[in-house]
């Protein structure tokens, strides 16, 4: 009767292995969701910094109304964007507006020396980096999940339990975003 | 990049295994010689005692490692620098880098500390990612550009993510065990315990044990340093993966090693933690391969070469050809 015990042991081990793989896929899938929402956290932080920036610059360069308004409008557009296309467009606008703002600030040495402004500049640069890192981490999470899903023997289980492709890799939404930026003086 | 990470991982794993086997072997042989054929169990008792003592000593240092390391280095929390208006922009840049790279690594943000010193350098400490800290000197923060700073912080973040401080503590336990065993054995032998060990076989074993007892601490030290160097390469590779920009770290390493200012509060006990060997006396061409085995860090040229290898597609931009003759001629 020893062979019966052997079969039972193998069955138990196989079951344990399946449970292990299933839980691993669950973990990886949830990490992808988490990573996706973390990007929004950073995007919101950037949006929160902008009013402060506008106020600081206004204090020194009040007559640069147009530039300041562009920034405020771009931010509003970004917050109100509904579709992916609108989002991409708004991000582009904001990027341009901020670039012009900092270019304009070059002409105001008092502003450039202002501690608050310097701090805000660093904060903004830091936030842009954090957005990039959040997107990078999101892509890494997607890769880890896809690999786990596609490896053998996990792919058998993945199919059976419905672990589908969760989300896609983060891609620049418009072809313009992929193009090398033109530098014009 | 991924290949280098994989290679470094299994190589350091192998070294740890070898180290463990080495310690067990030493303990066994010494214990055996000690007890002789009449007390073969001494082998295991000796090993057990030494390991326990080394373990206790290390547990204390493990749990206190971050606070001790930070206070020895004179590191202050970053809040002090964030609240000083002059330092604020630099502090923000540093803080953002730490936070950003923690996001990229998927670990909780380590506490950021600053050391007031002109010599550029940095280290990471803490037993796991939840209780970790990174310290950087003001010299580093002012001299590095954005890519270089992120390269350095990426390297430190990788040390934390890879649990290198835990690994270091384990190697110290192993080293401590070996030293204790050899020490105790040599002492007791000196005071003539030899009448307990019997037989001719005992003599040969004795001689082997004595030679090993003298050499073992040195060999163990070399193994520990080899592991330390391997983990530095791994942290370089992982750091480059975090930033996706190997040239940043490469340039930072060159800048740091080119700077000859002596880091004030570094000493031999803490030197191994820093990203580049802080003690000028331990740096530079030490000549023979034998000497280099005693280094805590791999040579800078090697580290830079490996990073450049990862860069692959990045083509260095050459300066345009200089025209002949001064302008206006």
Task: Outline the secondary-structure elements.
The complex is a heterodimer of chains A (185) and B (329).
Chain A (H helix, E strand, L loop, with lengths): L1 H59 L4 H16 L3 H22 L3 H5 L1 H36 L3 H8 L13 H4 L7
Helix pairs in contact in A: 1-2, 1-5, 1-6, 2-3
Chain B lengths: L1 H34 L6 H32 L1 E3 H6 L4 H18 L5 E5 L6 E4 L7 E5 H6 L2 H16 L2 H27 L10 H43 L2 H13 L30 H4 L7 H12 L18
Helix pairs in contact in B: 1-2, 1-7, 1-8, 2-7, 4-6, 6-8, 6-9, 7-8, 8-9, 8-11, 9-11
CATH architecture of chain A: Up-down Bundle
Q: Give the oligomeric state of the chains in this entry, treating copies of one chain as homo and distinct chains as hetero.
A: heterodimer
Structural class of chain B: mainly alpha
Number of helices of chain A: 7
Number of separate structural domains of chain B:
1
Give the helix level of chain A as a range of percent. over 70%
Strands of chain B, count: 4
| Largest sheet, strands/sense/barrel of chain A | none
Q: What is the radius of gyration of chain B?
A: 24 Å
Largest sheet of chain B: 4 strands, mixed
Q: In words, what does this structure look like?
A:
- The complex is a heterodimer of chains A (185) and B (329).
- Chain A has helices spanning 2-60, 65-80, 84-105, 109-113, 115-150, 154-161, 175-178.
- Chain A has 185 residues and is mostly helical.
- Chain A has a single domain, classed as de novo design (two linked rop proteins).
- The longest helix of chain A is centred in the first third of the chain and has 59 residues, at 2-60.
- The model of chain A has no long low-confidence stretch (mean pLDDT 83).
- Chain B has 329 residues and is mainly alpha-helical.
- The radius of gyration of chain B is 24 Å and the shape is elongated.
- Chain B has helices at residues 2-35, 42-73, 78-83, 88-105, 138-143, 146-161, 164-190, 201-243, 246-258, 289-292, 300-311, and strands spanning 75-77, 111-115, 122-125, 133-137.
- In chain B, α6 (146-161) packs across α8 (201-243) and α9 (246-258) runs antiparallel to α11 (300-311).
- Chain B has one domain.
- In chain B, strands 1-2-4-3 form a four-stranded mixed beta sheet, with helices on both faces.
- The termini of chain B are far apart.
- The chains are: A mainly alpha (185), B mainly alpha (329).
- Chain A binds chain B through residues 31, 35, 38, 42, 115, 118-119, 121-123, 125-127, 129-130, 132-134, 136-137, 140-141, and chain B through 85-86, 88-90, 92-93, 95-97, 99-101, 103-106, 146, 150, 244.
């Amino acid at each position: 009767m020893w062979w019966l015990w052997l079969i039972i042991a193998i069955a138990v081990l196989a079951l344990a292995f399946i449970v292990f793989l299933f839980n691993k896929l669950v973990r990886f899938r949830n990490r992808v969701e988490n990573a996706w929402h973390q990007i929004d956290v950073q995007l919101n932080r950037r949006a929160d910094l902008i009013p402060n920036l506008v106020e600081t610059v206004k204090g020194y360069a009040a007559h640069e109304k147009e530039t300041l308004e562009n920034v405020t409008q771009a931010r509003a557009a970004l917050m109100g964007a509904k579709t992916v296309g609108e989002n991409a467009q708004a991000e582009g606008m904001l990027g341009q507006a901020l670039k012009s703002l900092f270019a304009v600030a070059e002409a105001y040495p008092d502003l450039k020396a202002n501690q608050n402004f310097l701090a805000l500049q660093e904060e903004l640069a830091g936030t842009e980096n954090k957005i990039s890192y959040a997107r990078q981490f999101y892509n890494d999470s997607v890769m880890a999940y896809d690999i786990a899903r596609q490896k053998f023997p996990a792919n058998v289980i993945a199919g059976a339990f419905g672990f589908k492709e969760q989300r896609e890799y983060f891609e620049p939404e418009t072809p313009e975003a992929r193009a090398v930026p033109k530098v014009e003086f | 990049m991924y290949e280098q990470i994989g290679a470094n991982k299994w190589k350091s794993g192998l070294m740890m295994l070898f180290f463990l086997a080495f310690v067990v072997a030493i303990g066994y042989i010494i214990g055996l010689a000690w007890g002789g054929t009449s007390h073969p169990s001494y082998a295991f008792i000796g090993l057990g005692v030494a390991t326990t003592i080394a373990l206790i000593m290390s547990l204390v240092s493990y749990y206190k490692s971050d606070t001790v390391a930070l206070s020895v280095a004179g590191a202050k929390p970053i809040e002090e620098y964030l609240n000083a208006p002059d330092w604020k922009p630099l502090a923000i840049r540093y803080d953002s880098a730490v936070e950003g790279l923690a996001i990229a690594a998927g670990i909780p943000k380590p506490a950021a500390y600053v050391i007031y010193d002109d010599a550029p350098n940095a280290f990471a400490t803490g037993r796991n990612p939840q209780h970790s800290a990174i310290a950087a000197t003001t010299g580093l923060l002012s001299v590095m550009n954005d890519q270089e700073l992120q390269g350095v912080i990426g390297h430190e973040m990788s040390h934390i993510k890879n649990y290198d401080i835990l690994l270091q503590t384990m190697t110290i336990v192993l080293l401590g065990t070996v030293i204790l065993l050899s020490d105790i054995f040599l002492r007791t032998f000196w005071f003539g315990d030899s009448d307990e060990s019997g037989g001719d076989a005992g003599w040969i074993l004795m001689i082997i044990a004595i030679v090993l007892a003298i050499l073992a601490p040195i060999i163990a030290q070399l193994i520990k340093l080899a592991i330390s160097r391997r983990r530095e390469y791994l942290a370089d590779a992982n750091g480059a993966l975090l930033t996706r920009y190997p040239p940043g770290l490469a340039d930072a390493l060159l800048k740091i090693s080119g700077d000859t200012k002596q880091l004030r509060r570094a000493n031999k006990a803490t030197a191994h933690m820093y990203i580049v060997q802080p003690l000028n006396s331990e740096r530079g061409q030490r000549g023979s391969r034998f000497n280099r085995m005693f280094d805590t860090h791999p040579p800078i040229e090697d580290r830079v070469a490996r990073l450049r290898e990862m860069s692959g597609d990045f083509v260095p931009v050459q300066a345009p050809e200089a025209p002949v003759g001064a302008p206006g001629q």
